[in-house]
């Protein structure tokens, strides 16, 4: 996730919210901030997509993909521990959905992100357990599926085998995935009656627009390094990497 601490969202419903609002708003939703219907709905969607992802990975991916999934999960988890500063005295950190999708594809990438957020919730209390479905859906599934397909569309439009097209696609998808996750969180909070939609959207977007820039920079830097060193590790590997196909960890 891209978060910087615990936020008391109930302050937003007060007329004094403009002055009481902290300079950060977390995507990790704590327990008690979503209504039961909204929480259950996100759980159903999250579990359904994860079940489909498990079947797709089992049937379509090679066994050698598993080590890369583990490495990717460890990298994203570690990278999320590193905060980068943004204006206002706060900071953000990597979400990683688009990055996971670019490396592993949407199905395996979504499983990696799910594992990362489960570990964060259980071991670090980063987000509530009862709303884990919402947090996985907002930060993992939206970022991975949406981020991957947007990245793929932009990359293929500008040139699948060009570094320029790949990096532009990653940058746009990584930034937008953060924005969409922030909007989804705001809508869920509003539907739960926690905070008015206009207030939630204003607060979420004002900071996550900037945090998305950090997400894009980290994702672009990582993909650029992999492109130059092991392009065959990309899920949609460029044609120049075909000579390394025998070493590839991912299916074509």
Automatic annotation (TrEMBL):
Keyword annotations from UniProtKB, A to Z: Cell membrane, Membrane, Transmembrane, Transmembrane helix, Transport
Taxonomic path: Bacteria, Bacillati, Cyanobacteriota, Cyanophyceae, Leptolyngbyales
Main location: membrane
Topology with respect to the bilayer: Multi-pass membrane protein
Protein name: Energy-coupling factor ABC transporter permease
InterPro entries reported in the protein's UniProt record: CbiM/NikMN
Subcellular location: Cell membrane
Organism of provenance: Stenomitos frigidus AS-A4
PANTHER family cross-referenced by the UniProt entry: METAL TRANSPORT PROTEIN HI_1621-RELATED
Pfam families (alphabetical): CbiM
Membrane-spanning intervals of the chain: 34-54, 66-86, 98-119, 131-151, 163-187, 199-227
């Amino acid at each position: 996730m891209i978060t910087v601490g615990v936020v008391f969202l109930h302050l937003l419903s007060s007329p004094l919210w403009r002055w009481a609002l902290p300079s950060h708003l977390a995507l990790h939703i704590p327990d008690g901030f979503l209504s039961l219907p909204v929480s259950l709905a996100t759980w159903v969607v999250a579990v359904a997509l994860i079940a489909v992802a498990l079947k797709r990975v089992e049937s379509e991916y090679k066994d050698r993909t598993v080590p890369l999934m583990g490495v990717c999960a460890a990298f994203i988890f570690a990278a999320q521990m590193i905060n980068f500063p943004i204006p206002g005295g706060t900071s953000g950190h990597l979400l990683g959905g688009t990055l996971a999708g670019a490396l592993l594809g949407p199905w395996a990438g979504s499983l990696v992100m799910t594992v990362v957020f489960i570990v964060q919730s259980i071991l670090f209390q980063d987000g509530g357990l009862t709303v884990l479905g919402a947090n996985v859906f907002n930060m993992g599934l939206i970022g991975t599926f949406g981020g991957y397909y947007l990245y793929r569309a932009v990359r293929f439009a500008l040139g699948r085998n060009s570094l320029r097209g790949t990096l532009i696609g990653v940058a746009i998808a990584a930034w937008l995935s953060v924005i969409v996750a922030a909007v989804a969180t705001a809508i869920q909070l509003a539907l739960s009656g926690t905070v008015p939609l206009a207030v939630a959207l204003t607060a979420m977007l004002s900071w996550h627009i900037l945090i998305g820039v950090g997400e894009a920079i980290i994702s672009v830097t990582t993909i650029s390094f992999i492109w130059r060193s092991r392009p065959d590790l990309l899920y949609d590997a460029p044609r120049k990497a075909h000579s390394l196909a025998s070493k590839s960890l991912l299916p074509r």
